[in-house]
Amino acid sequence: QVQLAESGGGSVQAGGSLRLSCAASGRTFSSYTMGWFRQAPGKEREFVSAITRSGSGTYYADSVKGRVTISRDNAKNTVALQMNSLTPEDTAVYYCAGKYTRGAAADFSVDSTYDYWGQGTQVTVSS
Questions:
Q1: Which of 36, 66, 75, 105: CA 20 to 30 A from 89?
Q2: What is the DSSP letter of 43?
Q3: What is the rounded CA–CA span in Å between residue 86 and residue 12?
Q4: 92: exposed, middle or buried (C-beta count within 10 Å: 0-12, 13-18, 19+)?
Q5: What pLDDT was estimated at residue 39?
Q6: What's the half-sphere exposure (Cβ side, CA atoms, 13 Å) at 36?
Q7: 36 with 95: CB under 8 angstroms?
């Protein structure tokens, strides 16, 4: 079992930055592929970014590529999402998610493949 808790959301003006963090419980954090998803009002949840167990592989949605950086610290059981050049279109509830992974990561952008989810943190970007 893994419990996830996000922090770092808030309100920022367009062009600003935010750093989201996700703290995970449990002793097997390094066995989990970790991802970030977001859901804007009236829209379906969408993939933002994911990182492999070791952190050597990172993946980004086209909408955030070049503006967002995902990272993890397996010693501290944390995964972070640094977001820069934010726009109002980035306004959403952001969720941290994890899934136990053996071998190569796959389907990292598919939310139904993730087993554990945080409660979400609100990000609001004003123009």
A1: 105
A2: S
A3: 8
A4: buried
A5: 98
A6: 34
A7: yes
